Amino acid sequence: MEIIVVDDYNKMSKRAANIIASQVVLKQNSVLGFATGDTPLGTYKELINIYNKDDVDFSNIKTFNLDEYYNLPKDNDQSYNYYMSENLFKHINVKRENINIPNGMCENIEEECRNYENTIKESGGIDLQLLGIGRNGHIGFNEPDLKFEATTHLVHLDEDTIKANSRFFDSIEEVPTKAISMGIKTIMQAKKIVLLASGAGKAEAIYNTVKGPITPKVPASVLQLHPDVIIIIDKEAASKL
Ligand SMILES: O=P(O)(O)OC[C@H]1O[C@](O)(CO)[C@@H](O)[C@@H]1O
């Protein structure tokens, strides 16, 4: 694992955006894996700035998002479809048909998960996967568990995650309790992984990810086994290392 400690959130975001932009410059038809949450918002802003300066062309990329809430319509302003559109996709020249996000409104979950995995494979696999991390060490929506869930699957969200995500909803009752998420194997098959974390609230998760035992109780700890991971964190998130 390469660990890059930067001063603050803005520097973390710039560093991550530069890595993603370089990936696309070097391989125009890159397959990019994107994440949601607060952490990558600055990275997406920086990527839009880079795009507006004409420094990178996204017209040949394909994208796959890590996860989507189950049973939340795409046009709900808390869906990850909506988030990605508002915070990145509508500002750059990615082709709509090249955007993939699990369909949380699907009728057949198993079929949706299978199709999502197949579409990733048919695209040649993910070249670069961006990740945030939950305070409990989750990546995507792979919550702490007794085993690593391999492929795209339906997840029952932890109480902690539901509480953390309630800040985006009017009340905790409105927070979806399930989601469709790439599995650990899906994430681990990405050729390159960039994990971001900012703030003291993530310090313990980062410590456990980098220095702790590899265990499904800290899903991100499996990244110790990946050959090409860059962890970009600010000083506060690095404070327990
Ligand atoms: O970046 P945030 O908002 O701290 O979220 C961390 C993690 O939690 C999630 O938002 C889901 O709970 C993930 O998508 C993200 O990686």
Could you walk me through the main structural features you see in this protein, from its secondary elements to its overall organization?
- The protein has 241 residues and is an alpha/beta fold.
- The protein has a single domain, classed as 3-Layer(aba) Sandwich (Rossmann fold), CATH 3.40.50.
- Helices cover 30% and strands 17% of the residues.
- The chain has 7 helices and 10 strands.
- The chain has helices at 9-26, 41-52, 80-87, 109-122, 159-165, 184-188, 203-211, and strands spanning 2-6, 31-34, 62-65, 67-69, 99-100, 128-131, 153-156, 178-181, 192-197, 229-234.
- Strands 1-10-9-6-2-3-5 form a 7-stranded parallel sheet, with helices on one face. The chain has a 3-stranded antiparallel sheet with strand order 4-8-7, with helices on one face.
- Helix 1 packs across helix 2.
- The chain binds 6-O-phosphono-beta-D-fructofuranose (F6P).
- Belongs to the glucosamine/galactosamine-6-phosphate isomerase family. NagB subfamily.
What's this, in brief?
With 241 residues, the protein is of the alpha/beta class. The protein has seven helices and ten strands. The model has no long low-confidence stretch (mean pLDDT 96).
Mean of all residue-level pLDDT scores: 96
C-alpha geometry: globular
Structural class: alpha/beta
Ligand species:
6-O-phosphono-beta-D-fructofuranose
Please, how many domains?
A: 1
What would CATH call the architecture?
3-Layer(aba) Sandwich
Cα radius of gyration in angstroms: 17 Å
Number of helices: 7
Uncertain runs are: none
